[in-house]
Amino acid sequence: MRMLVVDDDCATRRQLVYIAKELPELDVLEAASQGDAHALLERQSIDIALIDLRLDAADPDNRDGLALVREVRARAATPIVISGSDGMHDVRQAMRFGAYDYLLKEELSSDLVLPILRRLCNQRVLEKEVITLRSKRFPSPMDSLIGPSAAMQRLRDVLQRVSVSDRPVLVTGPTGAGKELAVRAIHALGSHPDEPFLDLNCGAFPESLIESQLFGHERGAFTGADRRQQGFFTAVGRGTLFLDEIAELPLELQAKLLRVLETKTYRPVGASQARVFEGRVVAATHADLEERVARGLFREDLFYRLNVLEVTIPALDERRDDIPALVAHFNAKQTRPLEFTVAAVEMLREAPWPGNVRQLRNVVDRLAVFTESEVTPELIASLSGRSKQKEGATLSGLIRAVLRMPDTDKLQLMTYALVDEAMRLSEGNKTAAARLLGVHRKVVERCLSRTEAPSSQPAAQE
User: Fold this and answer.
1) What distance separates the 2 farthest-apart alpha carbons in the chain?
2) What is the structure's pLDDT at 289?
3) Closest Cα to residue 15, out of 95, 83, 88?
4) Tens digit of each residue's pLDDT (9 = 90 or more) over 390-421
């Protein structure tokens, strides 16, 4: 088990290393700066981190230690112990970022440090045992996270560590990168995989309805409430409530959600008695929540409450080595699997993917619909709209090709193709895609959901 000690003061660092070596199961690594720590983290994973908040004692404004706490938590849900001489404001900030405990440098001793390290070592051992036992009982949800790249290996490690906790999780990443699959993996690896998994898109409901969807309501609570309705907080039981596009949640409801997270209780609209919330909240967004906090569009206290455990999904451009495996995976799901030339796969690997994995999947789906021969770079360019043919002639040819296909729901194929192109032009924004198509956002969501794997066992990234 590896522990990383980061402190610019050599004497303090050596003292902590000396104390930690009383635990034979710990392999202790040292770093004197944020840069040194960053280089170590790039080379290997760690199980525990002990970080000094002021990595340059000569600079009173230094915040490298605080920045490193955030970096370590973003890379993996690693338990962090912070150390410092003063500055309770920085300590509070570090705890908000997910630090496990803190130590005062003036009081460093075996009696204080060893009990904390022992608890963390025992916790890490139990987490690994739980993960091993669950992997034997259930099919691995990691099978849906395709790719051998280092970025995906880190993501799988983070998901395994996060899943054993019952604290809120914030999943961030660009549209189409696979946030929902990561959330489903957290649920499947968690303490109650047999309990419900419910998802609510915070941007898909008007403000007047979303409160009732979340909390439920009593009969007569408002005009039109002719019967009692159970909300998501009730229906999820001990399972996982996935709040997608959390940045779109109205400010008034952000305050109510914060209260649920802090007290584990909620009150349906029109009810006089509070009820206990037993489940777990996982939120996701592609927006920059810190920027929204600065603009007053998102509550700072809710951001810190959700951001205790953060999972960042890498964009496809950050994991290009996974593209051949993803192409093979999506191709294997086609009714008529295709033959890709080496040059075609390399072209896909080097192409820009603003729509991320979802866009790549849709390209493979489109090729399977419109292609009967070997897939070459020229064919990919033609179907991607980069050929020199006029758009009208290309569209006419594609329609004729679809109509000639045997035993296929041609209308459904064209619908999927239209939605796919609208999503590409709108860079993955469902509302903008719906506007291009002249339909409601829910129509786009339904169409996209039908192209996904079944919700009970997702098989590919979105």
Assistant:
1) 80
2) 92
3) 83
4) 444 455 556 666 666 655 677 777 787 788 77
280: enclosing H helix or E strand: strand 280-285
What is the chain's Cα-based Rg?
25
**CA–CA gap between residue 419 and residue 444 (Å, rounded):** 7
Please report which confidence band the pLDDT of residue 81 belongs to, taking 50, 70 and 90 as the band edges: confident
Selection from 318, 280, 290 nearest residue 183 by Cα:
280
Q: For the CA atoms of 254, 259, 265, 269, what is the dihedral angle to 10 degrees?
A: -50
**Hunting for tokens 């098989």 — which residue is that?**
459
Secondary element (H or E) of residue 69: helix 64-75
Indicate if the pLDDT at residue 147 is higher than 70: yes
Residue 389 has pLDDT above 60, yes or no: no
Give the number of C-alpha atoms closer than 13 A to the C-alpha of residue 327, restricted to the C-beta side.
Answer: 20
Distance, CA of 309 to CA of 112 (rounded, Å): 26
Helices (H), 333-409: 342-350, 356-370, 377-383, 391-403
Helical axes 179-189 vs 150-163, angle rounded to 10°? 40
Please state, in angstroms and rounded to a whole number, the distance separating the CA atoms of residues 409 and 51.
59
Do 137 and 250 contact (CB within 8 A), yes or no? no
Compute the residue count for the chain. Answer: 462
pTM value is 0.62
Write phi, then psi, for 282 (nearest 5 degrees). -125, 125
Place of tokens 């973003």: 74
Which phi and psi angles does 84 have, rounded to 5°?
180, 170
Beta-bridge partners for 82: 51, 102
How crowded is residue 27: how many other Cβ atoms within 10 Å of its Cβ?
Answer: 12
For residue 39, give the amino acid letter. A
Contact 218, 179 (CB under 8 A): no
Strands 275-276 and 265-266 come out as: antiparallel
* Per-residue burial over 289-314, b = 16 or more CB atoms within 10 Å of its CB, e = otherwise: beebbeeeebbeebbbbbbbbbbbbb
Say yes or no to pLDDT of 462 above 50.
Answer: no
- Alpha helical stretches, state H, 97-193: 110-137, 150-163, 179-189
User: Tens digits of per-residue pLDDT, 40-58?
Assistant: 887 777 888 888 887 776 6
Tokens of 173: 């990443």
Q: How far is Cα 262 from Cα 255, in angstroms, rounded to an integer?
A: 11
